[in-house]
Every structure is written in C-alpha cells, then in structure tokens.
Amino acid sequence: MIKCKRKLASKFEMKYLGLMHYFLGLEVWQKHSDIFLSQGEYVVKLLEIFGMTECKSMVTLMEMNFKKLCRNVVGPDLENSSQYRQLIGALMFLVNTCTNICYAVNTLSRFMTEPCHTYWIAAKHILRYLHGSITLGLRYSVGNVKLHGYTDVDWAKIFISRKSTYLCCFSLGFSMISCMRNKQKFVALSIVEVEYIAASMASYEAVWLRKLFGELFEQVLDTIMIYYDNKSGICLEENHVFHDKSKHIEIQYHFIRDMVHRGVVRLHHISTNKQIVDIFTKELPKRNFLVFIEKLVLMDVSPLNEVQR
User: Fold this and answer.
1) In-domain check, residue 20
2) DSSP, res 55
3) Residues of the chain under the 50 pLDDT cut
4) Residue 4 DSSP symbol
5) pLDDT value for 47
6) Do 102 and 152 lie in a common domain?
7) How far apart are CA 61 and CA 122, in angstroms?
8) Measured at the alpha carbon of residue 252, what is the angle toward residues 205 and 149, in degrees to the nearest 5?
9) pLDDT of residue 309
C-alpha cells in the first residue's frame, strides 16, 4: 500500500487525510486486523423519508412463496408510482453492504413500470426488516485469503416469461467481495442446463478475479473452488462426450470444461442446506435466513460506532 501511494504521489498531487471513516454514505471502521463496512446512517435517513421510523420490525425480508402470490395479484395501481421507484432505487444502493436484501430488491425491481399496492406493501416489508437490522455490517478480516465461489439458480421462476435467474458470488476468506445476479436471455429446458450455464458464468468471473489478484499481489492464485449443489451439472462437466442430453447447450457455455482441465477452477458439490447463496435466489424460512446471514459475516457494528463517536 505504501509503495502504491508513493507511485501515485509521483504522478498526481496528493494529500494524506488519514484513515477513511465515511464515503458516499458508506461508514468504515478500520482496526489492526479487521475492516467493517455499514450504511446505518443511510438506513435511518431512508426510514425517515418514507415515514417508517416507528414501524414494527420484521425478522425476514419477504413472505414465503411471494412469487407464486404475484401470479394472482389483484389490486389497484399505486396513485404515486414514482414513490415506489424512488424506494427501490434507494434500496439498490443499500445492497452494497446489506447483501442479504439483494434477492428481495431484485424481485421487486421488475415491477417498476406498473407497480400495484401489493408490491408497495412488499417494499415496505423490506423497510421493516431494515428497521430491525440497522446495525448490521460487513466484516473483512486479515488472515485467510483463499478465494472461493458459490453459484446457484432460480429455475423458471419468472412467471411471465419462464426464464431463470442465476447468481454467483466469490469470497476472500470468509467475506464476500464479488456478487453477480442476472436473468438468462432464453428459457432453459432443464435444471441441469441452467445450473451448468451458471457454473460457466461463474468461471468467467473466477478467471477475471484470478487475473486481478495476480496483478495486485504479483502472485498466481491456487485453483479456485466453486461450490455447486447440482451433481448432474458436475457430471456434465466431467463427461466430455456430447450426447442428446447436452447437444442443445451452446458451445460457449462449455468454457467451464476448459477451465477445470487447466486447473483454474474446480467444481465441488455442496448440500443445498449449506448453499449460502440461496439467500440471493429464493425466499427462505426464518431459521435458514438467519443462519445464512451469519455465514455472510454480517455482524453488529454498533459497538464500533460508539467507540468512533
């Protein structure tokens, strides 16, 4: 870091202002071996804007089977749809540190064109959850710098088009540093196909992160483990023979086979009950939701806030 600052100072006029504590709504606490990130003040302002400072807190983000309920939504359109869009936009910025709200925000953002009262209630449900989790923040610790990833899909759950969404995230040690969630451009014919494509997209991200860390730290990372909860997809990656079950999959998605063969990445099966990225792809019951939040290294930063003040 010192070497980097010297190089920048030789090219640009710089002034050292000490450790960063606040930047664009992001609160930062730096200790000897830990860095904590939070947006507690931003959440407080958000609750004030939408009149939710005295609301009742919720433990989870969404009702179970919310997407199924959306199929039969009957209700009046919002009189002020711009307020709904304003709230969803504000929540998108909050995803930077409150990664656990990613799924709920992504789902509700699909209805920004013609929101109805039901979606507005669901959006306010997120605010109720945030009211009870204002002090949660991300923790990044020194020590374990092994890079690994998770990938999961939500197959054919977009009830209008029957397209799927896939997600992959990568962690450095125990803390997440990269997360990508996208809707696929076509309708997948099977869960194996969509899982296999998700693994290929995760391998793209793994290759980029491997190059980035190689440039930053001037060393080559070991094989990146990608945890994956579909055994059929792993078998498809290992079987290099194209047959009737896989010939419809585009050639570009077989990129994962080449990366595994080169030793860049490796797929490893993980039980669905331990697949922490489920929190980004579906509604979860209270017990699973709280367990996965803990595994995402979201912790209470209120004691740090008191010390800094």
Assistant:
1) no
2) P
3) 307, 309
4) H
5) 92
6) no
7) 9
8) 25
9) 46
* Together in a domain, 157 and 173: yes
The residues facing 180 across adjacent strands are 168
The three-state secondary structure class of 72 is coil
Angle between helical axes of 191-217 and 231-238 (0-180°, round to 10): 70
Query: Facing residues of 116 across strands?
Result: 77
3 state SS of 153: strand
Q: Return the structure tokens found at 251.
A: 């050639």
**Three-state SS sequence of 191-259:** HHHHHHHHHHHHHHHHHHHHHHHHHHHCCCCCCEEEEECCHHHHHHHHCCCCCCCCCCCCHHHHHHHHH
Q: Exposed, middle or buried: residue 34 (CB in 10 Å: 0-12, 13-18, 19+)?
A: middle
How far apart are the C-alpha atoms of 149 and 151, rounded to whole Å?
A: 7
Fill in the amino acid letter for 290: L
Instruction: Tell me the residue range of the domain where 221 lies.
Output: 144-270
**Is 0.85 topped by the overall pTM?**
no
- Annotate 89-124 with DSSP letters as a single string: HHHHHHTTT-GGGHHHHHHHGGGSSS-BHHHHHHHH
Contact of 253 with 196, CB cutoff 8 Å: yes
Nearest 10 degrees: CA dihedral of 115, 120, 123, 124? 170
- Our count of domains for the chain comes to 2
The pLDDT of residue 306 is 52
